[in-house]
# Entry
Amino acid sequence: MTAPDTTIFERMSGLAREYGAINLGQGFPELPEPPELIAAAQAALAERSNQYPPMRGIPELRSAVANYYARTQGLNLSADNVVVTSGGTEALAASLFAMVAPGDEIILIQPLYDAYLPLVQWAGGVAKVISLTPPHWTLPLDDLATAIGPKTRGIVLNTPNNPVGTMLTRKTLEAVGALAEAHELWVLCDEVWEAMVFDDTPHISPLAIPALAARAIKIGSAGKIFSMTGWKVGWAVAAPHLAARIAARHQFLTFTTPPALQWAAAEGLGLANSWFDAERARYAALKARLVRGLEAAGFKVLPCSGTWFVTIDLAASGLPADDAMLAERLVREAGVASIPVSAFYAQAPETGYLRLCFTKDETVLDEAVARLAKFRAQLD
Ligand code: PMP
# Structure
């Protein structure tokens, strides 16, 4: 099990450029960006210090993260729980480098975000991989229990899940908590999509589960919360003794994160709930538009709660269920780039699902649907 040199996102974006295709592959918005955040960053650049900020992050952002999670998820946190990093990716790296010792077995759950496997391996860990069960992508707790052995030290979770957009329930997290407690495991939970939930499914962090509160690490990302993926401001949130270990790794990864963007993120997290509701509504409308268009054209879209993605069930849509081959054909023949869900597997992939990103202008989504519909009609 080794990670590829080039990520699927880079490959599909490259093909999209080469063929002039609409890029519904890589997850980034091509939409107006929040003016409040841009203004806050501009003001901070002009008016505040641009020298090294504190290693763990400016205190204002660390407090803002704690307050935001108190307000939105009922978590009881303070700045001592928070380590600011250069994106969720660095928070994942610092956390795994802090927690994994050579030879440790770490349970990963596929489909999985592509950074987990190489980071576990670079830390000297051995990945044990189990799979969510389609089409609802539920976590098979029996498989999880069976995968835990004497060398197992940790579990990596992701909710809402990229690529499939489903979320872990409190009941599932409580069951994970019982296992983690019984086997003395830590739980790393990638929650970067927590603000991008478009139905009324509650986002539950392992930090909200009593059995996990002292053994869980929560990963967040301002790039996702504010829909500016290039900002690369993220954080790890954990009990103070774990946060200190993560900070010690962060110190020698990037040491710190651009201060103006930290100030802006701190200001952004303090915006009123109505601001976040309006952002969610803007994205929910685009998701609904893409889903409606795809369904009208005969595609079967799987239900999901969060992220910027929807997943097409290929067999149920009357398409050949070889997602990698189909993604290549779609970019070349239909002019639409997508991501095959099989790329999110470390072994024994599901090959019947394709991921599409909906954070594009309405006219772009409509054109993509028209192209996909034409391609599908030609197959009949
Ligand atoms: N985890 C998941 C599941 C993601 O989808 C992403 C970004 N696509 C990240 C982490 C990385 O977040 P950031 O851009 O803040 O590094």
User: Anything to note?
Assistant: Residues 27, 87-89, 113, 158, 162, 190, 192, 221, 223, 229, 232, 234 surround 4'-deoxy-4'-aminopyridoxal-5'-phosphate (CB under 6 Å). The first strand starts at residue 22 and ends at 23. The CA atoms of residues 130 and 144 lie 7 Å apart.
